[in-house]
Amino acid sequence: MKDDYSYCTDGKNNYLILPSDYVWEGKNYQYRMLTGNKIDRILPCTAISVDGKEQLYYEITSRQSISDLYRNTAVTVSELIRLLNAVIDAGEKLGEYLLDYSGLVLDPEQIYYDFFKEDFQFIYYPAGSGENVYSELFHFLADKTESEDAEAAAGIYQLCAMAESKNFIMNREVMKKFFPEENTDRREVYGSDFEYEEDSIRETQECGKEWSRQDEEQEEQEEKNTGPIFLIAAGVLLAAGVVLEWLRETTLPIRYQLPSMAAAGGCCAAAVLAAVVGAVRILKHRRSETNRNDPSDARQAEEWKSGPRRQDHFAAESILYSGENHYRGRGIMAEESAEYVIEKKIDPEMSIEREPGFEKLHGIGKARGYHIELEQLPCTVGKIRKYTDYQIDEPSISGMHVRFYRSGDKIYMKDLNSTNGTFLNGKRLNPNAHEEIRPGDEIRLGILDFCYR
């Protein structure tokens, strides 16, 4: 499982898919329990037959893997405790269904945080290898836990050592031994970083398609076309007023002069109003064109600079593509020495470079005014300030939506399992897929359009 998995989307939901080349013999009971029940802390799963082979589709919509969640930030002690308690809870729930604990997948790439439920969720794989399931997660946490808390750091390093035993099982007694004081509230919330979630995620799941980019383009086209029309109408009305006044002075009888004067005045007033409306529409259209091409935005630049950026490094990931529809990935566990000291590997997405002629993402249409600088990479875009470098408070943008990073002399963007999608030149990226971007490309985040130049 951990060496080969894929992602896809049906436009509404995102899925992690188990490969079809596994044999289910001897796993029938686990298979039925997984697909036929809603198990607390286990991701919902659906079996789909593809070419005569069963595949498991785990719904991961609006959820974020902890490897991406903590790529740019450290794991706090309270978050560490909550995650370890969630692992224990998941094991206990599996035991209630008589499911083999070794099928619990604890690869950081496949442990998800649900922003809406404010909880961690896991994958259960019926064809589990039976190997130790804890080691990779504990090494990840040892690498990412805040070093300021000496007791917590010592506890997680001891767990790394204990996980080498084949008979080791994470349980309440182990938690009480290494985290005696912090292990009281298993459901504490993160805090103010997630205050927006409940309302915002509901909006995110329901919005997007109701707003149309075509409506925005039509509105801009109307402003462009109707401005001159109003000016022409103003000229016609003014000419009509002048003609009526000339007729009143020269040919009309006395009894018609008062209505003629009123009509001439009305034409002149209407001409002034039409001229004002036409001028405003033309100026508004020209201003929007100027803003669209303006390469600077002091407010957005300041907001970008204020975003958090902690330079923690996680184990590198190897990425492959298979066909057009599925992104395949592989998590690589950090190495350890005999003293259980974790060796940090440099993630290609974490390398920071500055270029003298860096480009930006320039917002167009509904995104007008947003300018995402790509001077310092990687750059994560989304709503949650704690986990992103650039924040966009818009319903169609996910908490963590997309990440831009440099590899060699090329710049890539990676969709972070966003709900409303990341698009490159009109084509939606699959969840967690990444693509190279080039100057001139059109990028869409949710319903917001950007031009990369």
Description:
- With 453 residues, the chain is of the alpha+beta class.
- The chain contains ten helices and 22 strands.
- It has a six-stranded antiparallel sheet with strand order 3-4-2-1-11-10, with no helix packed on it.
- A hairpin with a 2-residue loop joins strand 16 and strand 17.
- Helix 4 packs antiparallel against helix 5 and helix 8 runs antiparallel to helix 9.
- The longest helix is centred in the middle third of the chain and has 40 residues, at 254-293.
- It is elongated.
- The two termini are 40 Å apart.
Write the layout of secondary structure elements.
Elements (H helix, E strand, L loop, with lengths): L4 E5 L4 E4 L10 H9 L8 E6 L2 E7 L3 E3 H4 L7 H20 L7 E2 L6 E3 L4 E3 L1 E2 L10 H10 L5 H13 L9 H7 L18 H10 L6 H38 L3 H40 L4 H9 L10 E6 L3 E6 L28 E5 L6 E3 L5 E4 L7 E2 L8 E8 L2 E6 L6 E3 L2 E2 L5 E4 L4 E4 L2 E5 L1
Parallel strand pairs: 14-15
Antiparallel strand pairs: 1-2, 1-11, 2-4, 3-4, 5-7, 6-9, 7-8, 10-11, 12-13, 12-22, 14-16, 16-17, 17-20, 18-19, 18-21, 21-22
